[in-house]
């Protein structure tokens, strides 16, 4: 049998152990909440979230040849027809893969390598799973250096040519 002193000693050790574990648990909890708050704050102030780049310079008009030219950094096809220019998004409307230009005989079309959606030369979907056409985008001339410039945030529906 334990003496009263041994029993009191065990109780005070358990009390201080319990107190210590409560303090450590509290500190861990507070640290976790603060770190989550910090990461949430940092993600809201991320430059990528604040504003995505939507305008891209594509090159001088005279550098393009008749037909379609793929501009990789903007994911667009620039089509030149004489002195007319238009921009067609190369982003598949199904799941966002980049379509590729393909030729079959005398006709050109765009095909998505991911799920095989097919679009004609005007961007209209002719084979699924995509149910929407590729988007035409607004083309302008950059005032500072005369390059063609596309605005990815402004789809324009049907083909609208920029005459240069």
Commentary on this structure:
The chain has 2 domains: 4-50; 55-163, Rieske Iron-sulfur Protein (3-layer Sandwich). 27% of the residues lie in helices and 34% in strands. It is built from 2 helices and 11 strands, in the order H-H-E-E-E-E-E-E-E-E-E-E-E. The protein has helices spanning 4-44, 47-50; strands at 55-59, 67-71, 76-81, 84-89, 100-104, 107-111, 118-120, 125-127, 136-141, 148-157, 162-163. Strands 1, 2, 3, 4, 9, 10 and 11 form a 7-stranded antiparallel beta sheet that branches. It has a 4-stranded antiparallel beta sheet with strand order 5-6-7-8, with no helix packed on it. Strand 3 (76-81) and strand 4 (84-89) form a beta hairpin. The longest helix has 41 residues, at 4-44. The termini are far apart.
Strand and helix map with partners:
Blueprint: H1 4-44, H2 47-50, E1 55-59, E2 67-71, E3 76-81, E4 84-89, E5 100-104, E6 107-111, E7 118-120, E8 125-127, E9 136-141, E10 148-157, E11 162-163
Antiparallel strand pairs: 1-10, 2-3, 3-4, 4-9, 4-11, 5-6, 6-7, 7-8, 9-10
The CATH superfamily of the largest domain is Rieske [2Fe-2S] iron-sulphur domain
The count of DSSP E runs of length 2 or more, i.e. the number of strands, is 11
Task: Look at the helices and sheets and give the structural class.
Answer: alpha+beta
Low-confidence runs of at least 5 consecutive residues: 46-51
What is the 3D form?
Answer: elongated
Rounded to an integer in angstroms, the radius of gyration calculated over CA atoms is 31 Å
**Percent of residues in beta strands:** 25-35%
**What CATH architecture of the largest domain would you give?**
3-layer Sandwich
Largest sheet: 7 strands, antiparallel
Oligomeric state, counting identical vs distinct chains: single chain
User: What is the CATH topology assignment of the largest domain?
Assistant: Rieske Iron-sulfur Protein
Number of separate structural domains: 2
The helicity comes to 25-40%
What is the CATH class name of the largest domain?
Mainly Beta
């Amino acid at each position: 049998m334990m003496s009263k002193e041994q029993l009191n000693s065990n109780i005070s050790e358990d009390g201080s152990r319990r107190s210590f574990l409560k303090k450590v648990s509290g500190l861990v909890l507070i640290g976790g909440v603060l770190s989550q708050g910090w990461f949430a704050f940092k993600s809201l102030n991320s430059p990528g979230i604040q504003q995505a780049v939507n305008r891209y310079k594509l090159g001088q008009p005279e550098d393009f040849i008749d037909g379609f030219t793929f501009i990789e950094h903007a994911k667009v096809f620039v089509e030149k027809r004489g002195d007319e220019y238009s921009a067609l998004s190369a982003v598949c409307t199904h799941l966002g893969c980049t379509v590729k230009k393909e030729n079959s005989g005398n006709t050109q079309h765009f095909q998505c390598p991911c799920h095989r959606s097919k679009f004609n030369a005007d961007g209209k979907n002719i084979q699924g799973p995509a149910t929407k056409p590729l988007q035409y985008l607004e083309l302008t001339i950059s005032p500072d250096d005369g390059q063609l410039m596309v605005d990815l945030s402004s789809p324009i529906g049907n083909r609208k040519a920029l005459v240069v």
